[in-house]
Amino acid sequence: SSYYENYHSMKEIYHWMEEVVRVHSDLLRKIYIGSSYEKRPLYVLKVQLQEIPKSAIWIDCGIHAREWISPAFCLWFIGHNRLWRKSRSSHGNSKCIGTDMNRNFDAHWCGKGASPYECQETYCGPYPESEPEVKAVARFVRDHKDIIKAYITMHSYSQLVLFPYSYTMDKSKDHDELESLAKKAATAIKRTTKKTYTPGAGAQTIYLAPGGSDDWAYDLGIKYSFTIELRDTGTYGFLLPPREIKPTCLEALSAVKEIAQHVLQNL
Ligand code: 0X9
Ligand code: ZN
Predict the structure, then answer these.
(1) Can you tell me the distance from the alpha carbon of 191 to that of 240, in angstroms, rounded to the nearest whole number?
(2) What is the pLDDT of residue 30?
(3) Is residue 124 within 6 Å of ligand 1 at its C-beta?
(4) Which residues form the Peptidase M14 domain (predicted)?
């Protein structure tokens, strides 16, 4: 269970305050307002969206020492979900928010590998392209499908170069060509930063996952369709440190160039 689903010592909470203010310095300020009888610092965490605050609501927690759930609420209140995956849509009177936008495209929509339940991380949405973000991308790509020769979608993490299909274990009719191009892209990455990226068809390499944008673009007629899963392989996972941004972008660029070159040769 998460940090917020546990009780923490005073020392841990002081550390948490520093971290959360550092990570969200755009919204949070820590204000020293005095010290306790035992000389421990007392801080206010101020949540402010605009520079000039108009009015405020005060919340305190832990006036009574034995009521541990009370400070747990204050931490929970501040905690931002860094690991949010889905869109932000609401669904009737369900308390769960969002649709997995990579399950919401019209490609074997909501088959095995997606969920019809709002509360799941892979919720496919109420119908294909129900999400305005998905609809906008699909409409644009559809309107320009004759000039778009390659569709590349960037995700993280796992270091993979994936190509269709993800909605079925069957091979696509361009499997061999896409596999050799994905291998070339992985080799280019290796040359650039020495990192290992694994090439393969989506369903065979990771899991069945219908309704993805790559499969949808491929079935629309855009043959060179890829999902690139960027760094890392699990050390930091989704919380990739900033120092890895540049090398990750350089290796991704080398993969994109390899794909672009192949597209140009096959126009
Ligand atoms: O599951 C996904 O949507 C992608 N992996 S991620 O960890 N970034 O969520 C993989 C997408 C592969 N392609 C399709 N499922 N169509
Ligand atoms: Zn993703």
Answers:
(1) 22
(2) 96
(3) no
(4) 6-263
pLDDT for 54: 82
Judge whether 229 counts as a catalytic residue.
yes
Q: Which of 229, 244, 251, 258 is catalytic?
A: 229
Q: SS3 of 104, please?
A: coil
Determine the longest span between alpha carbons in the chain, in angstroms.
76
**pTM (whole model) above 0.80:** yes
95 CA to centre of ligand 1 in angstroms: 25
Does ligand 1 have an atom closer than 6 angstroms to the CB of 205? no
Q: What is the mean pLDDT of each run of 10 residues along the chain (267 residues)?
A: 88 96 90 96 91 87 93 92 91 94 98 97 98 97 97 97 98 98 98 98 98 98 98 92 94 97 96
Nearest CA to ligand 1 atom 1: 209
CB 159 within 8 A of CB 197: yes
Ligand of minimum distance to the alpha carbon of 227? 1
Q: State the Cα angle at 100 between 97 and 102, rounded to 5°.
A: 165
So what's the pLDDT on residue 1?
65
Ligand lying closest to the C-alpha of residue 200: 1
Please state, in angstroms and rounded to a whole number, the distance separating the CA atoms of residues 210 and 102.
Answer: 8
